[in-house]
Design brief:
This protein is of the alpha/beta class and 196 residues long. 30% of the residues lie in helices and 28% in strands. It has 6 helices and 9 strands, in the order αββααβαβββαβββα. The strands form 2 sheets. It has a 6-stranded mixed beta sheet with strand order 5-4-3-6-7-8, sandwiched between helices. A 3-stranded antiparallel beta sheet has the order 1-2-9. Helix 3 crosses helix 4.
Length: 196
């Protein structure tokens, strides 16, 4: 992590949300660093602050007014809701069904032509955010951008739409078969929302 952390990383450090160890990520890859945004977002003032910052980033990036904010459950729920509040937009979320496929449920629908941004807490591979983008586009919505509190990819992830992040980091990830942390015998932990 860079020495100049800035206010976003200060919140992660202050709340104990920046974890160091040996972690299995949602993607299946391993890493020595994990950003547990739920530990930051459990505090409404911090969630509101980060939501406002994301809303400002979207206003700078989006060419027109944003009608809807969409987020993948579980990680994107709180920050997506806060960004929608700051934008004065509608908020909806997608969930994984029993087969593991991301889908709209609970009566949520996108309307043809509505402008949407997709919000995630932390992006590593962009898989969940990309699935939400594809669901919205398949319904005829226009996805203007995607954003996250943290981008762990160093800006390399392609979600198929312009992206914003409050903090971009380059965090090393490893294929489990070539993980130096596994080779060192460190036990692996799965801390995210899809623990298995």
């Amino acid at each position: 992590m860079p020495d100049d952390q800035g206010p976003v990383m200060d919140l992660f450090e202050k709340t104990g949300a920046y974890l160091r160890g040996h972690f299995r990520l949602t993607s299946g890859n391993h890493s020595g660093e994990y950003l547990q945004s739920a530990l930051v977002l459990q505090y409404p003032p911090f969630a509101e602050q980060l939501g406002r910052l994301l809303a400002e980033a979207f206003r700078r990036a989006a060419p027109e007014p944003i009608q809807t904010v969409a987020a993948p459950a579980l990680g994107g729920l709180i920050i997506g809701h806060e960004a929608a509040r700051a934008l004065g937009a509608r908020f909806l979320f997608t969930e994984r069904d029993v087969t593991g496929k991301m889908s709209l449920r609970r009566g949520f629908q996108f309307t043809h032509g509505e402008t949407v941004v997709v919000v995630e807490d932390v992006v590593t591979t962009g898989g969940s955010a990309r699935e939400v983008v594809e669901i919205a586009q398949a319904a005829g919505a226009r996805v203007l951008a995607a954003g996250s509190i943290i981008d762990r990819s160093g800006g390399a992830v392609n979600i198929g739409v312009p992206r914003v992040a409050l903090k971009t980091l380059r965090v090393a990830t490893f294929d489990p078969g070539r993980c130096p942390l596994c080779a060192a015998g460190l036990p692996v932990v799965k801390p995210g929302s899809r623990a298995a």
